Amino acid sequence: MILLVLPLFLLLFCPSPARAFDYDFEGRVKADGAHVFNSPPGYDDFDRQAELRLGVLGNALQRDGWKLDYEMTGDVLHVGGPRVQAGLNDEFKAEFFRAWLRLDRDNLKVRGGRQKILFGAGTIFRPLGFFDTRDVSGIVPETKGVDGVRSTWFFDETTLMEGWAVPARKDDRVVWGLRGEGFIGGLETGVVFQYHPKTELSDLPNFASELYQMGYHVKGEYAIGYWNESRLDVESQPGRNPLRFETVFGADYTFALGQGLHVAAEYFVSAREKEISIPPELQPFVVEHRAVHQVGVSFDQPVGIDIVWRVFGFYDVRDGSMQIVPQIEYAVTNQAFLYLHGRWGTNVNGEDNIGRFFLKSSAFNGTEPELGAALVVYF
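Request: output the structure for the sequence above.
Response:
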């Protein structure tokens, strides 16, 4: 991972002696199992996975106000059951979760390596989530991160300019982008531009298309929190440049019920011209409509000091599919958490209709109803 050494070379321009190297170890163990109801014939009824994460992070060098921080965290994941049988997950995977060096001085931060590049105002739908791989309704949702270099300049505590470059793993192409963020008229405001060549980063949306992407987000609060996040894609094709536009409007509020009932809701719209490329996995869902309208809601509330319950709901206005994902978190100790979770879906237009949030088919697809438990222990 050659990108990791870039900040180290930059640090060599600071000539004075370095102070002491320090480190901290951290990690977690995660075990999850769920019974799948109505699993298609030939597929297991029990879905399971186990994860071990180990990492070390700290400060490597300090010279004349320059600091070099680092993180090196690896994941080992074993998955069994219908997800493996359907080819949705590998049975065994070992990879870096984070592996970066960060050079920091005053208002400048430069980070190279496997890292999270995530921004925007949306909480359920993320038009600006160029590198987002999270399942927002999952247990401890986290994005995998990408290999790249990111540089951020902070003008003050709320205003910044940032740029990034991510190798496309295809020829010598690079995904690169710029964004700015600050407060305008009391609103948190951001604008972004990204050039996205064809890549081999198959975990990311639209990885096989050449795109010019631009967008914005605004977020504020007046009695309730509210936000809007939007993105325009211009695809480069021989002789034409078809468009796709995505936007989300959201709001949240905490009601004075019990220890506080937090409710968030978002309305998502995606519209495209018919010539724009569609990823193969999405083609069955968009052949009839060039516009997608979806609603997402989330509820969460603490009960005492040890329990938090959450419910996520998703509904697709055009195809009629919906999904409800409940979750209860119980703090066994300060470092061990037990989760009870489930999933239930249906299609209000008929059980056999193709749906983005619920699909009844002869092959396991991950939208089947389930009930399970997970244990996460941090150390």
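The chain has a mean pLDDT of 91.
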